[in-house]
């Protein structure tokens, strides 16, 4: 099929590349000229495992094109994906300005044949209708608007798109359903479910999924608090409750909270939607406030250990991305920790395998934050090591080298990446989440 994807961010670029890989003819449109110029040269602007290979091979095979010109990009399209940002507004609601602006532009340049416009962005219930209205304003050809929320995880985006656990499609016509079935045919073979429903259900499904995941993590973070107070071990507890198939092992890891571009904003948006519909969704507020407080759980441990005197001290920070295998620092818990330490007069030397440059740009004029390109280099002259992201390369570290680099063998682990027995044997004082501290 001829497919256009508008927006070439984490979702749009992956969608475009994977649809091209599946044999569709894809044009990606973005209004960022520099980004499009780089994409045309085969340069991937984000870190996403496997994406570069898929992108470059499809450019080479003339399956994948990039442009800044929306009208040019959609002229042959049978399906037009909108993968545009929907950031939170002050009141928590999703900002639909990019989505509606492109919909308005489409009303002037819809192709001369039937097409479907697909909301891939995470958008509040009712957006499919609003997009339809904006396009119908001037459009003269037949079209449908479909809701098709994306569930990919950054870090596994290509795999998740190519082998989705499910695809959800909200349609209002049989014709649109047929287009969507054809589009996803190769992705949902081998028994992967394709749920066809109405747009409202599809739109709400995405918010329900993300809010459930944040609630699950927040629940474990509260259990971790109890473990610390009651002398229990959250690691064993986590494994034991996860073994119950009704609970499952995933998303049961306590830590310094979940960040990223999606969870915090989607939870706030669902809260806002609930309020608009006069429903007091009590769990949301609790899950949100536990999550927001979670990075401070680590800084409280630091303050306690140093008796509120961190001024003038340097801390090594491993991990800046909001989770491993991505360079995305949007709402990353590491940033809260940096802010807290800088506010208290400490300095931070940070390392992340992929996200360092983004943080360097953000704090360009702050001499108290240094970004280095080697994890062991970050340790030099530091009073302690803090771990904010569970990258595999941190798990694989040599404890002796950590101890040699630091001023003293002291770790504050916000992701529980080490076994307490191992760090104890290596001579560390070690604080983690929901487990007894190791004090030498
Ligand atoms: N990032 C994720 O893991 C993820 C997962 C599922 C769903 N989502 C949702 O998908 C949507 C997109 O998220 P993202 O992370 O890909 O965003 P992003 O910010 O990485 O990318 C958005 C892209 O849209 C482009 N853009 C903005 N306005 C435009 C316009 N008027 N015309 C053309 N291009 C325009 C930007 O230049 C950018 O390249 C959001 O609603 C998000 O909530 C994201």
What does the model show?
The protein has 440 residues and is of the alpha/beta class. The protein folds into two domains: 2-197, NAD(P)-binding Rossmann-like Domain (Rossmann fold, 3-Layer(aba) Sandwich), CATH 3.40.50; 291-431, 3-Layer(aba) Sandwich (Rossmann fold). It has 17 helices and 14 strands. Strands 3-2-1-4-5-6 form a six-stranded parallel beta sheet, sandwiched between helices. A six-stranded parallel beta sheet has the order 11-10-9-12-13-14. Strand 4, helix 5 (97-109) and strand 5 form a beta-alpha-beta unit. Helix 5 (97-109) runs parallel beside helix 6 (127-136), helix 9 (199-230) runs parallel beside helix 12 and helix 12 (282-305) crosses helix 13. The termini are far apart. Nicotinamide-adenine-dinucleotide binds at residues 6-12, 29-32, 35, 83-86, 98, 101-102, 121-122, 150, 152, 154, 261-262. Residues 6-12, 29-32, 35, 83-86, 98, 101-102, 121-122, 150, 152, 154, 261-262 line the site of nicotinamide-adenine-dinucleotide.
Describe the structure concisely.
The chain has 440 residues and is an alpha/beta fold.
Strand fraction equals 5-15%
The oligomeric status of these chains comes to single chain
Query: According to CATH, what is the topology of the largest domain?
Result: Rossmann fold
- Number of separate strands: 14
- The helix-and-strand class reads alpha/beta
Average per-residue pLDDT, rounded, comes to: 97
Percent range of helical residues? 40-55%
Instruction: List bound small molecules.
Output: nicotinamide-adenine-dinucleotide
Low-confidence stretches: none
**What gap, in angstroms, lies between the N and C termini?**
64 Å
CATH homology group of the largest domain: NAD(P)-binding Rossmann-like Domain
Radius of gyration, taken over Cα atoms and rounded to an integer in Å: 23 Å
CATH class category label of the largest domain:
Alpha Beta
Shape: globular
Q: Biggest sheet: strands side by side, in what order?
A: 3-2-1-4-5-6
Q: What is the number of helices? A: 17
Largest sheet at a glance?
A: 6 strands, parallel
Integer count of domains: 2
CATH-defined architecture of the largest domain? 3-Layer(aba) Sandwich
